[in-house]
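name: query_chain
kind: protein
chains: 1
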Amino acid sequence: FRPLRVEYPDDVTTFSIEDEYLIGKDLLVHPVTDEGDTALPAYLPGKGEVWYEVHTFQKHNGEQSLYIPVTMSSIPVFQRGGSVICRKDRVRRSSSCMENDPYALYVALNSQGSAEGELYIDDFHTFSFEKAKQFVHRHLSFAANTLSSRNLAPDSQFSTASWIEKIVLFQIYGAESAVEFEFDSTLSVLTLRKPRVNTAADWTTILR
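structure:
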């Protein structure tokens, strides 16, 4: 967790904010601390940046304050435009049960229509990633209507049963696809279902 002022030292508004945090550089979280809260003021930093609510995919511009409806079970979380976040969405009784679960990729486009992120996988238990280079490290990028996965560690050796179950792209204005998909024209959100590619493989998805 990092305070906003660390990532945005030139934005004086962030200096006094103590109840919002960044997870990495692409997720902004505003915890709900009072069960009586029905709405929280949230500040979204970054001039020229865009942020998306991860639950509704609603788009917001940076450098603005807004009120977000909340409950004790709905924490405001925003994803930065220009990022790719990899998530395991299947609810399990423990994290160990999720080891080989598939991934969902959430691609939030910036104002230039591009995004990038990384995916890292190892055995979650040992130091084999360090001693034997047993891990997967991928670079994910979207540009010119093409989403691709590239190997960042060609000398590593690791096999995983995890695969890509779903790709969700924010701010896409129509597309054709050979895989099963859904398109929400209201929010401009495209969801590709079951592309069925292994997370450790090189692959490319082209939107037409």
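note: The mean pLDDT is 89.
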